Amino acid sequence: MRIYKRPCEPSHPGEPKELAFLETDAISSEMSTDTTQKAFEMLTGEDDGRVCKDIPENACQDQPRNFFTHVISLSMTKLADGLIDPKLVLSWLLTGLGAPSAIVGLLVPVREAGALLPQLFTAAGLRALPQRKWAWAAGSAVQGLSALAIALFSLFLEGVMAGWAILGALAVLALARSVCSVTYKDVLGKTVSKSKRGTATGLASSLSAGVVIVFGVLLVSGVIEKISIVTAAIFFAGGLWLAAGTLFTTLEEDKGATEGGANSFKVFLENFSLLKEDGQLRQFILVRGLLISTALAPPFMVALASQGSADTREAFGGLGYLVVASALAALMSSYVWGRLADQSSRKVLVFSGLAGAVALVLTLVLSGMDLLEKTWALPLVLFGLMIAYQGVRLGRSTHLVDMATKENRSAYTALSNTLIGLLLLLGSLFGLVDAVFGTEMVIGVMAGMAGLAALSALGLKEVQDTDEPVSD
Fold first, then answer.
1. Residues in CB range of 165: below 8 A, 6 or more apart
2. Closest residue by Cα to residue 259 from 120, 369, 410, 434
3. Would the pLDDT of 449 be above 80?
């Protein structure tokens, strides 16, 4: 049994005092390591006989600490996302500031497509970095600064000027997010082994959702004016992104491959050829493309519930209830989805597609029964849709990381994200469908997309069943 010296005078004459303290520090360090290891084992169901999959042995030794660094950093960024949600929070904010509905309608496409479209071109440059945690940290910091700009614009601007200024800041935020997105899966794949990745991201989603619920309850309570709460929340989101970027730099990340960091257009063409070479990648992108319906549907659900209202802002009169419903769905489902994704990300995509279809069909049923405008109805169906949305996010992320290799993971991520970004831009055409055929038609089409996604996901392979990458 090893005896450690306490932080006092040296035990033997002439022994340096610093040594006594160093050995005491070893106690603290070892205790901290043991606590981290035990918590890691409890959350992941791991034990001392574990076998690290898809990461080197030295990364395996650092995995418990890296696991929690991922969880905490991702919790902060996901919380920031919830506080600045374009589908609900920013839409309400711009409506309250008197921005035109045309600008409000651009929030979700700009945020989603702006975070995805640039990735196929930026992936090559980012691949030149042996350690990509620095790019993620920088992207998180820029998102934080953009959020602070949005909060300041909301305080000092109104009307059209506020709308364009906030939309511009959101576009910068989205571009910075694209850097984080294209590098995160690669860093995750190098620092956390297969069968643990979904748990890390799912736990982060659940933790952040708990705080977003508090935000929603404050909005519902009416104790503080909504505009004050929303503005303060956006300022807080900016700080969270800055803090997350700082923490992420402490990850123990091995240097990775840097090939492919040359001409962006050439790499674009090379990456695009992956679609021809890999049938499973094509199938995955098809499934993910159909599942964008879960991201685009909420504003149309709100619009359907508020039809007949003379005041546009009444569409977001229940903002607090909608925020609570969305966050509660993330809190209750994210960890479960993450654990299931570590067993079968394919099944997660199937189940989340089915859940999304059911929630959207129920929305139409309640609307047909003239019940959707009831206080409880819209939060209920939004809750169901957001459970599906969380499954989509965790399922697609885990599936892509586990199906790829460390050599092509960045290329697969960038290619799929860019193509989905294009589809999201095309998704703005749903506004035209709404104008011509009505909101019910839009929601019906989206329900069909979610159902087709579930069927298409059946064609994906079980990428968690093998230590080898799965492709055709």
1. 153, 157
2. 410
3. yes
Residue 5 dihedral angles phi and psi, to the nearest 5°:
-80, 145
In the block, residue with structure tokens 């090893």: 2
Residue 410 one-letter amino acid: S
- Burial of residue 447, with CB atoms counted within 10 A of its CB: 0-12 exposed, 13-18 middle, 19 or more buried: buried
Q: What is the mean pLDDT of the chain?
A: 81
- Domains of the chain, earliest start first: 68-457 (1.20.1250.20)
* Residue found under tokens 């900016």: 238
At 203, the pLDDT band (50, 70, 90 cuts) reads confident
CA distance 167 to 175: 12
Which candidate, 429, 426, 428, 422, places its Cα nearest to that of 117?
Answer: 422
Measured between alpha carbons, how far is 175 from 109 in angstroms, rounded to an integer?
13
φ and ψ of 386, to 5 deg: -70, -30
> How many residues are there in the chain?
472
Contact 123, 411 (CB under 8 A): yes
Block residue for tokens 């994906």: 460
Yes or no: say if 263 and 124 are a contact pair by the CB < 8 Å rule: yes
Work out the widest C-alpha separation in the chain, in whole angstroms.
90
In which residue are the tokens 């990850």 written? 251
Residue 315 is predicted with a pLDDT of: 47
* Residues whose CB is less than 8 angstroms from the CB of residue 357 and which lie 6 or more positions away in sequence, other chains included: 447, 448, 450, 451, 454
Average pLDDT over residues 333-345: 87
Q: Is 257 helix (H, G, I), strand (E, B) or coil?
A: coil
Mind giving me the DSSP string for 136-183? HHHHHHHHHHHHHHHHHHHHH--HHHHHHHHHHHHHHHHHHHHHHHHH
Instruction: Please check whether residue 382 is in contact with residue 300, taking contact to mean a CB–CB distance below 8 angstroms.
Output: no
DSSP 2-48: PPPPPSSS-SSTT--HHHHHHHHHHHHHHHHHHHHHHHHHHHHT--T
Compute the distance between CA of residue 110 and CA of residue 167 in angstroms, rounded to an integer.
8
Q: How confident is the model at residue 434 (pLDDT cuts 50, 70, 90)?
A: confident
DSSP 460: S
Burial 329-360 (b: 16+ CB within 10 A, else e): bbbbbbbbbbbbbbebbbbbbbbbbbbbbbbb
Angle at 227 between CA 330 and CA 168, to 5 degrees: 80
Tokens at residue 84, please?
Answer: 């600045």
**Who's near 380: CB < 8 A, 6+ residues apart?**
325
Residue 464 is classified by DSSP as: T
